[in-house]
Fold this sequence. Notes:
Blueprint: H1 3-11, E1 16-17, H2 18-36, E2 46-48, E3 51-53, H3 55-61, E4 68-69, H4 80-93, H5 98-106, H6 109-115, H7 130-141
Amino acid sequence: MKVIEVAEFFLTKQSMTNKKIQKLCYYAQAWFYALYNRKLFDEKIEAWVHGPVCPILYREYAEFGYKEVPKINKEIKMQETEKDILNQVWEIYGKLDGDELEVLTHREQPWIEARNGIDYRKPSNNEILPQNMGKYYKEKYGV
């Protein structure tokens, strides 16, 4: 899969900000790795000031700024395991807005470790490794 397909899956549910899309894609990658020990998508996620961000995806929706990216009506083809994880991520995190998801990710080890002591207000392009995401969620939730 490509990260844009993951984002589009969530956008079939509702319109949302780029920030929220970023965090949902982060959680999809994290939980997929935790459960299946492999990446859902290959694009990297970085530990930015406002939480985990996939730069390619950020640029895709940058034109919307802080406004919501419109809901789409499109069938996203994927395997059942992928669809199951994305639906679960939506059930757990979909009710939160981008700011709430940012706060949540700032409290969790993968973003903190990737920042490697960088002040939370300073820019960073450090990658949040999928292996670290998977390990954290496996340990935290006993998966």
